[in-house]
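pinging the channel bc i need a second pair of eyes. not urgent but kinda urgent?? the chain im working w is below, pasted from the shared doc
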Amino acid sequence: MSADEKNRLLGIGYIVLGAVQVAGSLILAMYFAFFFGLISRLPGSSDDFFTPMFPFFVFVVALVFYGLLTGGGSIFTGVGLLKKRRWARPLAFVMGALYALHVPLGTALAIFTFWFLLGESGKALYEERREESGSQAPRLNEPPSRVWREEEQKRERERVEPPDWRI
């Protein structure tokens, strides 16, 4: 299997897992909205119904928010991986770390993410993509190239100083 096929499989995996998570979060939100609405309308329920249920309500809202946030981030990551965007690789590491605890599918996706993107073929695929984009900025672990340094010096020489308005 080539690096492009692995990257495509990884992107599709993130999109599918994210869509399942978003759908599950929306179903959970609708279920509990119906549940809380139904119980609050029962005969004999008082206006003080939500006081003992408030911690549970906050937990459900936080769970739905987490599901929508990570599911949306997963879909965003998958689209970025399919388009081979440079920002998708670090985002895939973050999403892989979050999904490592989602047993069993999230764990499998996280393992595949780290195995592929930290391997030689994943590094080569995104390094090749970096070179195609024409990025001249140096990476953090290597000194700036001569061309980049000359361009920076040229920009410094062309920079116009603002006038001094102090008298």
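so The two ends are 71 Å apart (CA to CA). and The first helix runs from residue 3 to 40. — does that match what u expected or am i reading it wrong
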